What we know:
- The protein is of the alpha/beta class and about 400 residues long.
- The protein contains ten helices and 17 strands.
- The longest helix is centred in the middle third of the chain and has 49 residues, at about 115-165.
- The chain is rod-shaped.
- The model is unreliable at about 1-5 (pLDDT under 50).
Amino acid sequence: MLKKSEGQILVVDDDAASRRILVRTLSSAGYDCRESDSGIEALKLVQHEQPSLLLLDFDMPALNGAEVLKRLRSNNDPAVAQIPAIMLTGHGGEESEVLCLEAGADDFVTKPINAAVLRARIETQLRLRSMRRQLQQQNDELEEWRRNLERDLAAARLTQQSLIPQKPPELAGWEVADCYRPVIQVGGDIYGWLRVPDGRILFWIADATGHGASAALLTALAKLLFHHGSAEHNAPASLMKAVNDDFRSIFGARSFMTAMCVALDPATGRASVVGAGHPPLMISRHDGTSESIPSVAPPLGLVEHARFSETIVDLARRDAFVLYSDGLFGVPRGEQRRLTPERLAEMLDSTAPTAEALLTRLLQRTASGHDDQIKPDDVTAIVVRRAA
């Protein structure tokens, strides 16, 4: 392993008298110096013990200063290849300066050497070296932070994937299609379906604040709260109240999420809708008309004694409802503004033969259908359609 010394200067000059003068001058200024009388020996010394800076005479036999630097700069070890080097040359003029810099020198000093100028240039290069090392350390720390973040996101992604439904439920007389596209590995959207005690099917969706691992944890909590509440509450309004109370008791209004749920009676087609700060529920009628049911309650977790009211909807054959997150309000190609709920409702295609087709056409008509566009938010949607 190479040994690294701080503040050590290697003086390389084939002229013994010049070398001794340089070493004496620099030592009296407080520098730790070593010396070498040839370029070949200097390369060996550098491999054994890296100096902080190289003072290198341009004119030397066997290997001159330029050749030494070319070999040094091509070394496979970046610590060796990047050692600062100041070339000492007896040739004045621009041509000599260019030769020194082209050889890989960081700076040069012409002979006869002015001690004050030499010390100033040495200090400059040592400061630059120190700054480079600090920057490298910061880059290493940033890279470690990035790797840790990727590991956290990967773990959060696996956790969230286990919470997202893997396939739509089989419901006699009904079709269900769903879509989940997070902005990054994990997102703040979560949804699901479950059977409540009175036999109805509850379709629910929630959108937590933020993205990343923290949002994934909120979605995990949301699913836990909805499933826990559904075991005790038949009505979606009382369920939302229970989720709101639990969420607020945990975070104390420091965090919130929007949500909407639809309790559907598959036999009759009657549904009870409750929204909490969430985008309106869209309804596509078989006759080509559309409706929307807005949320009337604030987002979950914001208000301690929030009131939740239900809206009753009857779905005939080939009618459908769409639960979605606000990521669906994209910017269609050729347009400048994001969609509104009204515009989005107009994009519902009642002629679509299946729930899957209705969802696909809706995504295609919004920015959510364009995979080559950067999406500003997670895109989640559930389409529930009564069969013909």
